[in-house]
Amino acid sequence: MSDQTFRISAGEALTAEKITEAGEKPTEAVANYALRLGDDALILAQRLGWWIARAPELEEDVALGNIALDQLGHARSFLSYAALAWDKTEDDLAYFRYEPEFVNLQLVEQPNGDFAATIARQFIISHFQFELYRRLVDSTDATLAAIAAKAVKEVDYHRDHATQWVLRLALGTEESRRRMIAGLGVMWPYVDEMFRDDDLVESLGDAAVRPSSLREDFDTVTGAVLAEAELEVPEGFVARGGGREGIHTEFFGPMLAEMQVLARAHPEATW
Amino acid sequence: MATAAQRKRSDDAELPEDPAGRAHFDELIAADQRVEPTDWMPDAYRKTLVRQVSQHAHSEIIGMQPEGNWITRAPSLKRKAILMAKVQDEAGHGLYLYSAAQTLGTPRDKMTEDLISGKAKYSSIFNYPTPTWADMGSIGWLVDGAAICNQVPLCRASYGPYARAMVRICKEESFHQRQGFEILLHLSRGTKEQHEMAQESVNRWYAPALMMFGPPDADSPNSAQSMAWNIKRFSNDELRQRFVDMIVPQAEVLGLTLPDPAIKWNEERGHYDFGELDWDEFYEVLKGRGPANAIRLERRRTAHEEGAWVREAAAAYAERRRVESEKAQAA
Ligand SMILES: [Fe+2]
Ligand SMILES: [Fe+2]
Fold first, then answer.
1. pTM over 0.90
2. Domain at A23-265, CATH class
3. CA angle, B193 as apex, B192 and B197 as ends, to 5°?
């Protein structure tokens, strides 16, 4: 993938605080799109954060912590931007929406499972996010482009981390191979949903990236890794999806309750 | 280097005295210079360091848990990010310190075994639970604050790898203390419930934080030798005093009280006086009867055991790669 280049814009030093400060209001449609990408990153960060102090080795506590932190950073940028459209804050969106108001992909809310399942989820989402962000840097919406320019470099590391682990686990021991296959089997049904276009994306034109346009590159790149790992692309059951419309799997509610519990107990407080 | 390290394996018998090495070591200490892994060192010096550095590493690792407890529930995204970064820093500290300890000839596996079998000690402070969000503030302000008082002088410790690890660590610890202070400040100035949450938490953490400096000098038999070796620079009581002098004015800024009615400025000493600590409680926790000892160790053990298959896979894959590249070279 080293031949792929992407524009690195002034968005490098972009933070959630700066987006809020700039106060550049997105249109309703752009805000709804930013909300999707923000929710993907937020829910993934929430899942990954659990691993800190539980990883198989200290180096992985650090690596998964890094990835979770990057994702949380991306989430904060997207949500801060979206929030401007509704005169809200990133925290209003993260802590005071209910389950059906979240529009993340169902993949990211899937439970961590064992390390192999977490790696399978990482493998899928980081390749997806990389393909998405490297196109979103050309968005006609300057803020989305700037957020993507920062995120794409970090996600490039995430996919490398996941790819290396897929190879290690698939080609390591009999047990790790068995677990890697099982992990991919659990997560792969949620792949299909990631590439579905809908009215919102259509209406945004060149401000957004059509999910369906990512499928080919995603299949090529992940397919090559799976081939090197001597694994088959999992087939069979395809989840119905619906995350973008607020339909979630039953794992989502408890996770959200945990994330929001303290903030909701003190709705009038700031922290 | 490998031979030097091997020579110093802790399970080896006492080595015969090396007069030239001994003279060099004594010179380094007298001149307050750094001892490096390849230098000869007395067995007792090495043992003291292995114990101290590995305990310190274990403390960083176990210390991830009480704060890790709140990552998923942090009440704002900004606080969540800061907390995640902090807990991750602690993992990094553990890694630097294990590396420093390894230069003394003790493999990391051995140190890990000692930790999860309960043989090795770690700072008792992490055996207290974190039931409220305000504990994230108290840990940063008081626990990291006490750690800084302890650790800044260690940046000049005589053993080079340890001193250098401490320099990196101390930079991050001051950020940790500041974020803890900010959490408490925000709570203290927030709603009534938030203020109470902050005060209740400080009440719980104050005495345990003061005990982090170890028993009173009179009951600390190993300190004198460590000071002679330039590992320790100040006595337990000196450091404790320094800490109290630091936090009393900070508590005033926070608008919180410290749970010790005996705290009073002593004009003559130029320090704050403070009350006696309950050392029986300290020794109870030290002996493994703290409120969360069993939980912390069990969690570490579980992570280690459940991760075994992953580490085995990584090792097998590395070996497979090595064999492949050898074959490729031979061809
Ligand atoms: Fe630390
Ligand atoms: Fe710290």
1. yes
2. mainly alpha
3. 120
